[in-house]
Amino acid sequence: MKRVGQSGMTFLDIDVGARPAATGGSFAATAGDVNALFWNPAGIATQRGFAFAGNHTAWLADMQMQSFGISYGTANAGVIGFSLLSMDNPDVRVTTFVGGERWEDQGFQDLIRQFAVGVAYARQITNLFSVGGQIKWAHEDFGAFDYQDRRTGDQITGWKASKDVLAVDFGTLYYAGFRDLRLALSIRNFSPRTRYQLDYFELPLTFRLAMALDIISVFRPEPGRHSLTLSVDAISPRDFTERLQVGGEYWYREVLALRFGYKFDHDLESYAAGFGVRQRLAGLVLLIDYAYSPVGGIFQDVHRFTFGLTQ
Q1: Cα 241 to Cα 122: distance, rounded to the nearest angstrom
Q2: Neighbouring C-beta atoms of residue 103, cutoff 10 Å
Q3: Left (φ > 0), alpha (ψ -120 to 50) or beta: where does 265 sit?
Q4: Cβ–Cβ under 8 Å, residues 269 and 254
Q5: Who contacts 163 (Cβ-Cβ below 8 Å, separation ≥6)?
Q6: Residue 305: closest CA among 284, 283, 277, 281
Q7: Measured between alpha carbons, how far is 183 from 171 in angstroms, rounded to an integer?
Q8: What's the rounded Cα separation, in Å, for the pair 171 and 68?
Q9: Distance CA 294, CA 24 (A)
Q10: How far apart are CA 122 and CA 100, in angstroms?
Q11: 167, 165, 243: which is closest to 209 by C-alpha?
Q12: What CA–CA distance (Å, rounded) separates 3 from 42?
């Protein structure tokens, strides 16, 4: 049985970042990328110095998602991070209840506001094991409305359909000691129940067990021109059945990346693909990534772009 419709603020469940999306959302065991803030905060624990990533997603039904992550790490004090995610929604047609059987058309209005802000901290406990956590504030606002209370029949004016929720993300990342094999656990969007009028909902809580391994290193332990990392995320979401997401990332000389992935048991998405380039420039490393995800049904395909800088 699919547990559909049991979560609110589902914008928090959209894949963030072109690199993660191009590998089919199998990213929880990836280390050293600031976009790990949106997947598994333990993934930023190995970063040193400054890192930034800005993401743009052309989502479904003319929605646009913008996000960015910033982190700064030292060898002794761990890594701190900051994340921001915001949804840009198209105007919606508003109809207001004015009494009796009468409703009034208010036309199209820019009402919906959705965003989340997070502060994270991650640390290497040993050279093989890292932990990380993030506290975030999620906000959703659908504007103010007049409506008729279904219990009493009274007309309510100016009711604000907005909510603020505090949520927690937590994760671990473990190097198993065989080549660069990584095992990860991630828990995202853990929060208390929230109420809209008479109905309660919770955020899209997600548990992930993940692994990743550069399979070329199995046959050639010394670093070379090529790497090919295969990754798998087993996911247990609150509002759907269990899923499996797999992906691969090929790097040539740490300059050009080709990526692919597949989502099993997903209503709309299936395979994904993309590429990335990395170039050192004036003491910084410039990162540019792109991901393409075809979507079934009546929706347009999804395109994601990421621009990043690291020290």
Answers
A1: 30
A2: 12
A3: left
A4: no
A5: 8, 9, 139, 140, 141, 194, 196
A6: 277
A7: 11
A8: 19
A9: 11
A10: 57
A11: 243
A12: 28
In the three-class reduction of DSSP (H, G, I as helix; E, B as strand; rest coil), residue 295 is classed as: strand
Which pTM was predicted?
Answer: 0.89
In the chain (311 residues long), the average pLDDT of successive 10-residue segments reads 72 96 97 96 96 96 94 93 94 69 69 93 96 97 70 68 92 95 97 77 93 93 88 92 95 96 89 96 93 86 96 89
The answer to whether 249 and 257 have CB atoms below 8 angstroms apart is: yes
What token pair was written down for 53?
């990533």
Question: How many other C-beta atoms are found inside a 10 Å radius of the C-beta of residue 117?
Answer: 14
Q: For residue 62, report the phi and psi dihedrals to the nearest 5 degrees.
A: 65, 15
Closest CA to 56 of 251, 308, 306, 310: 306
Residue 102 token pair: 């009468």
- Would you give the DSSP letter of residue 36? G
Residue 71: C-alpha distances to residues 83, 123, 252, 304 (Å):
9, 12, 26, 21
Query: How do beta strands 284-293 and 302-310 pair?
Result: antiparallel
Distance of CA 134 to the CA centre of its chain: 13
* Tokens 């959302």 belong to residue: 25
Question: In the structure encoding, which two tokens stand for residue 112, read together?
Answer: 């919906």
CB under 8 Å to 286, separation ≥6 — which residues?
Answer: 278, 279, 280, 308, 309
The single residue listed with the structure tokens 């309510």 is 156
Contacts of 109 (CB under 8 A, 6+ apart): 91, 92, 93, 94, 143
Report d(CA 293, CA 291) in Å as an integer: 7
- Judged by DSSP in three states, 43 sits in helix
- Give me 29's structure tokens: 């065991």
Say if strands 226-237 and 271-281 run parallel, antiparallel, or are unpaired.
unpaired
